[in-house]
Design goal:
The complex is a heterodimer. By secondary structure, chain A is an alpha/beta fold. Chain A folds into two domains: 195 residues, D-Maltodextrin-Binding Protein, domain 2 (3-Layer(aba) Sandwich), CATH 3.40.190.10; 202 residues, Periplasmic binding protein-like II (D-Maltodextrin-Binding Protein, domain 2, 3-Layer(aba) Sandwich). Helices cover 47% and strands 15% of the residues of chain A. The longest helix of chain A has 21 residues. Chain A is globular. Chain A starts with a helix and ends with a helix. By secondary structure, chain B is mainly α. In chain B, 75% of the residues lie in helices and 1% in strands. Chain B contains 14 helices and two strands; from the N terminus they run H-H-E-E-H-H-H-H-H-H-H-H-H-H-H-H. The chains are: A alpha/beta, B mainly alpha.
């Protein structure tokens, strides 16, 4: 009892010091005033994909709820990123709400100060529904949306875990068990490779830049950390070399020819036509793999977490969120929209269609939501299990694209037989000055 | 004779005087609209690009004047040096191949045969397609496991190739797409040239007993040479700045085996947001194109002079 009392007092003191809730003088059970900004017009810029589709499809519900008109456009990812950066730099973006890729843009957006701080809105009960609390977002989500001062600069929208897809039929035919570790994975892939039949044990991204998202799964599981405490890049250390050796072995010994030029599209083609037995990539590919019009292996796909490495088991995680332009004149209305987009209803729809995975645990772990998932149960299980071992898949720096291009090119060269250590060293000699320059600026 | 030379300037003078009065005071107001447009959309962007290339200009951070240091980075940038090589190989191949094949096709389609119009129509269809759309189709055709190209090769017993998925074959494979798409353009230009050739030289060659090759080599080819030069020039300028096909099929990969200057420039400016360095690359790239065009023009001029000198 005494303990309870003290903790409460500490809590109160803390709140007062922060000067947040105690001064607002609002009734404890304030309700969100959804209609307060009725008549406002919002502009949203979205990256093309299932998240954008899900928002646009149901936007009428939001307008009915709030009376806010929403204009939104979906632009292919790469062009959308450019457009956002150019408009935000100009200081007068044409949009209020921006859909951002955390793994590429987090640091850039934070450093430039382009996003509005959502922390006060989160604490305002007239703006935030009681079920939307920080602690509901997964750890990766919070890492992505908060800056180093602890301010919330966006709402985490959808997370992308890397998982292992495997072809059950091929596994059965060769009598191979689902691998739990990297060693087992190599052994399994060797058994599954049958060049006469034209089937291979493993397929994955070999194309420069794209390949980094696969490689980091290996890197993390070999115990790798991207940056040291001072922000120096560590991706040419011993863990990186081991990871690259594994990458090289898999993609040269047991993968289809030409894999050095494969992005996800070519990898998926090979896997979905039953020509490759294992594929490690983002969770979002279940819908096409289970679509009879696009896939020859419907109902035969197994889903599981990325196998463990010698130093742990992580799923490289990427994600996107919704932020509000600091220059926007309709921040509160825009916040309502962001909140609606990450709401339980919208998140459930996204998950159930297999178009994305909400960062919010209350959605992912809800039995009712789970029962409505149209993808196989195994897929959902792999998502839930990956959430537990999730770790950010790329270093949080500004020159992410340069990192992916330079180190990615080094990885691709190892597929033509170059030595992993030498290639990594060469790439980092080029990359380090770029990173230093960007951090100094 | 002397009367004539005397009278001419006098006549000119007497003619010029009233004409001067009729002329508007100056032509220059009429030049202004064109001048403004040229300044705004050609000259200004150029000067601005040069200005950007002299600055450290990164999106999201303040700009500082750095003089030529962006240019000094170029020689020690391995990606840039490699990109020049890729650009030259890509350009030479995708000028020469369409030129040879296009000329051949033009000679064939110049003959009169049944269904010629229809076949010509089919032949120029690749030109009408959107490069990005066809690039995606070609990407799947190149797929080493599932692509139709390897299937076709397997029918004649050739082992599967890696096409755009191997650093060694990626540029020739991309040139294949480029050639497929742009051979028809060369054919159209050359066909126009062929139509303009008079028939007399052919008749006299026939009387002299020239064979088909001699007729082509000594009559057709010299007469269509001006057209080939124009076609080659258009093709070269297109090929050197080719972007869509490469970007959509390989994004410069595998590794950076098909990264041309244009693709690298795009990465630097619009993915790394290093506008200063990107501008420096753009300026150098522009100079390269100008140099190539100048070489071609010079070659054409020289050829004309040698023709005149040899009395052709």
């Amino acid at each position: 009892m005494a303990n309870h009392h003290i903790s409460r007092r500490t809590l109160l003191a803390g709140t007062a010091a922060a000067g947040a809730l105690s001064l607002t003088g609002l009734p404890a059970r304030a309700e969100v005033n959804w209609k307060k900004y009725a008549g406002t017009k919002l502009e949203v810029i979205l990256a093309k994909g299932p998240r954008g589709d899900n928002l646009q499809k149901n936007i009428k519900e939001f307008t009915d709820l709030t009376g806010i008109q929403v204009e939104s456009e979906q632009i292919p990812e790469q062009q959308q990123r450019q457009k956002c950066v150019i408009e935000l730099t100009s200081g007068r973006p044409s949009f209020d709400v921006v859909h951002m890729s955390y793994h590429v843009q987090k640091r850039q957006f934070e450093k430039a100060g382009w996003l509005a701080d959502l922390t006060p809105y989160m604490k305002d009960p007239t703006l935030t529904a009681p079920d939307l609390v920080e602690s509901d977002f997964s750890a990766a989500g919070l890492q992505y949306c908060k800056n180093d001062k602890g301010q919330m600069l966006s709402l985490p929208w959808s997370v992308d875990y890397f998982i292992l897809y495997y072809n059950k039929e091929l596994f059965q035919k060769k009598g191979v068990a689902v691998p739990k570790t990297f060693d087992e994975m190599i052994a399994a892939a060797e058994k599954l490779t049958d060049t006469k039949e034209g089937t291979y044990g493993f397929v994955g991204r070999g194309l420069r830049n794209a390949n980094m998202t696969l490689w980091t799964n290996f890197f993390l599981n070999y115990g790798g950390e991207f940056l040291d405490a001072k922000g120096n890049i560590l991706t040419d250390g011993p863990e990186a070399i081991e990871a690259t050796k594994l990458y090289q072995t898999l993609l040269t010994k047991v993968a289809p020819p030409g894999v050095a030029g494969f992005n996800w599209m070519e990898s998926m083609a090979s896997f979905s036509q039953g020509r490759s037995a294992m594929w490690i990539d983002g969770v979002g590919w279940a819908p096409p793999l289970e679509d009879p019009a696009a896939s020859r292996i419907v109902g035969k796909v197994g889903y599981t977490v990325v196998p463990a490495g010698p130093k742990g088991q992580y799923s490289a995680t990427y994600g996107d969120g919704l932020g509000i332009a600091a220059a926007s004149k309709n921040k509160e209305a825009a916040y309502l929209l962001c909140q609606w987009a990450v709401s339980k209803k919208q998140g459930a729809r996204l998950l159930q269609a297999g178009g994305g995975v909400p960062f919010r645990n209350s959605i992912l772990n809800d039995a009712e939501v789970q029962s409505g998932v149209k993808m196989p149960k195994e897929w959902l299980q792999s998502v839930i299990d990956s959430a537990k071992i999730s770790k950010l898949g790329l270093p949080v720096v500004i020159p992410v694209a340069e990192f992916r291009d330079l180190v990615g090119a080094a990885l691709t060269s190892t597929l033509a037989g170059a030595d992993p250590a030498t290639e990594l060293k060469k790439a980092h000699e080029q990359y380090r000055p770029i990173l230093e320059r960007s951090e100094k600026a | 004779m002397s009367a004539l030379t005397q009278s001419t300037p006098a006549a000119a003078q007497s003619d010029a005087a009233p004409e001067k009065e009729l002329r508007p005071p100056s032509y220059w107001p009429f030049v202004v609209p064109a001048l403004v447009v040229v300044l705004a959309i050609i000259i200004f962007p150029w000067i601005f690009t040069i200005w950007m290339s002299l600055n450290e200009w990164k999106v999201g951070s303040p700009t500082t004047f750095v003089g030529f240091s962006n240019y000094l980075r170029l020689p020690s940038d391995p990606r840039f040096i490699e990109a020049i090589g890729h650009t030259l190989v890509y350009t030479v191949l995708s000028v020469v191949l369409p030129l040879v094949l296009g000329t051949l096709a033009a000679v064939v389609f110049h003959q009169k045969f049944a269904g010629r119009g229809f076949l010509r129509g089919i032949f120029i269809m690749p030109m009408m397609a959107t490069p990005v759309a066809i690039a995606l189709v070609w990407t799947m055709m190149f797929h080493p496991q599932l692509g139709v190209l390897n299937y076709l090769l397997s029918l004649v017993g050739i082992p599967p190739q890696l096409w755009v998925f191997h650093p060694g074959t990626v540029i020739p494979s991309l040139v294949l797409v480029e050639t497929w798409q742009w051979t028809p353009l060369i054919m159209l230009i050359v066909l126009g040239g062929l139509a303009a050739i008079p028939t007399e030289p052919y008749e006299s060659a026939q009387i002299d007993g020239a064979n088909i090759w001699q007729v082509f080599r000594f009559i057709t080819l010299p007469l269509i040479m001006p057209f080939l030069f124009i076609a080659g020039m258009i093709r070269m300028i297109d090929a050197v700045k080719s972007f869509d096909i490469i970007f959509a099929i390989t994004q410069g990969g595998p590794g950076s085996a098909s990264e041309t200057i244009n693709l690298y420039l795009y990465s630097v400016a619009f993915i790394y947001y290093d506008l200063g360095y990107g501008s420096a690359i753009a300026v150098v790239f522009f100079l390269l194109i100008v140099a190539l065009a100048a070489v071609m023009l010079y070659a054409r001029q020289r050829m004309l002079w040698t023709e005149i000198a040899s009395g052709a």
